[in-house]
Amino acid sequence: MNSLSHIIEGCKNNDSRHQKVLYEQFYGYSLKVVFRYIYKYESAVDVVNDGYVKLFRNFKNFKCDNEEDITKIFMGWLRRIMVNTAIDELRKQNMMPDIGAIPDDVWEEPDKSGYADQTVLYKELIVQVKKLPPSYRAVFNMYVIDGFTHQEIADQLGISVGTSKSSLSKARMHLQKYINQDTQEIDAAYK
Description:
This protein has helices at about 5-10, 15-35, 40-55, 70-90, 115-130, 135-145, 150-155, 160-190. By secondary structure, the protein is an all-alpha fold. The chain has 2 domains: about 1-105, RNA polymerase sigma factor, region 2, helix turn helix motif (Rna Polymerase Sigma Factor, Chain: A, Orthogonal Bundle), CATH 1.10.1740; about 115-190, Winged helix-like DNA-binding domain superfamily/Winged helix DNA-binding domain (Arc Repressor Mutant, subunit A, Orthogonal Bundle). Helix 6 packs across helix 8 (about 160-190). The longest helix has 29 residues, at about 160-190.
């Protein structure tokens, strides 16, 4: 049960041992993806679990012919499922995400390979993205972080492509303002 392709084959056959291994191996990654949309920890955990239910039900649809790319392809497929599940939850909440604290252990890197600065930058980005209005935040996350096209965003959120582009532009302006404000505060502190 050590290679990802072996684990995936077990999941396709509804083997609960393989499902558990996969869940434990990718849970942290899934939670980070969902946190970009759902900020209340308890709600995010529920969304992740809902996402895994969808994932296990639809494993027959996962295909990868290239063994070398299986991890990358699987993580992209998993990310897409988690994003879609989070968006479904936002729709249920009328695009009003839950706001809450994100526990520090969520940000810990499992491999401890010295990327602490990237973790700090990621945390800071998420803090700034949380300040965006919900519609701007959803479009920003989907386009910039998750790689959706404007057409895909429009289809998912039930908006026009123009609205998606406009929301992204406004989100970037807001983030630029937040970053400039933070930079000025840091500069002022060192004067």
